[in-house]
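Lecture notes, continued. The same structure-token format from the folding unit now serves as the input rather than the output. Read the line below as a description of shape only.
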């Protein structure tokens, strides 16, 4: 399915207005989670690369932004039924205008066959499309031991094949412990626990707590979604 939406920019207010019927201050944005990013596992696409790559055909100056699911663009207000059969990573062009959207919260969610198995909710105020993912911004989490005062040795979107990585400690591969990692591919000398037969893979600590990766008791989600709330 193909979509075209139009963007008008107010330089004085720095607010992006979209023809789909909401602005950064509307109730739709303020009270509801809006899907910005959808990534299925095992499709061979790099999640981090998709998150970082701008949609070249979206021109905010001209106000025209064609959005096609076939080229990995997530249309605004798209219904799940429209893309549930797609195996592509889908990215909203809104990500490219993050600073204009008055984003209040960001939520990363993992699911298996449509059932949520893990999430982290972040304070999105005054954030960028990268620094929202930070331990000091944690508001809520399905992992009971994940909070601002917890000890982390890695909390980073971009960590060389271990992306969207929330880890507690390294003590040699057998003792690595953490909560969440997106495996986009293999390192030169990967630990046994991170070797996968297809990529990307979304590994997470089950039972709502940190996991020792090498115990191989981690879960593997089939979808990673990122949502935002706007308006504050």
């Amino acid at each position: 399915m193909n979509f075209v939406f139009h963007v008008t920019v107010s330089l004085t207010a720095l607010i992006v207005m979209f023809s789909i019927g909401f602005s950064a201050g509307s109730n739709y944005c303020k009270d509801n989670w809006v899907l910005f990013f959808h990534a299925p596992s095992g499709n061979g696409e790099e999640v981090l690369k998709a998150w970082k790559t701008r949609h070249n055909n979206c021109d905010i100056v001209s106000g025209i932004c064609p959005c096609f699911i076939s080229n990995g663009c997530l249309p605004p207000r798209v219904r799940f039924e429209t893309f549930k059969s797609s195996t592509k990573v889908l990215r909203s062009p809104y990500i490219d205008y993050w600073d204009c959207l008055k984003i209040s919260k960001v939520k990363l969610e993992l699911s298996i066959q449509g059932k949520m198995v893990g999430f982290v909710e972040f304070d999105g105020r005054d954030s960028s499309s990268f620094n929202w993912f930070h331990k000091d911004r944690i508001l809520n989490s399905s992992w009971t031991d994940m909070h601002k005062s917890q000890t982390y040795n890695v909390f980073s979107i971009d960590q060389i094949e271990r992306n969207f990585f929330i880890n507690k400690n390294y003590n040699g591969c057998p003792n690595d412990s953490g909560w969440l990692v997106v495996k986009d591919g293999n390192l030169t000398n990967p630990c046994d626990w991170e070797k996968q037969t297809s990529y990307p893979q979304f590994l997470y600590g089950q039972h709502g707590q940190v996991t020792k990766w090498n115990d191989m008791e981690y879960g593997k989600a089939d979808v990673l979604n990122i949502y935002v709330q706007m308006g504050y």
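Point for the exam: The chain has a mean pLDDT of 85.
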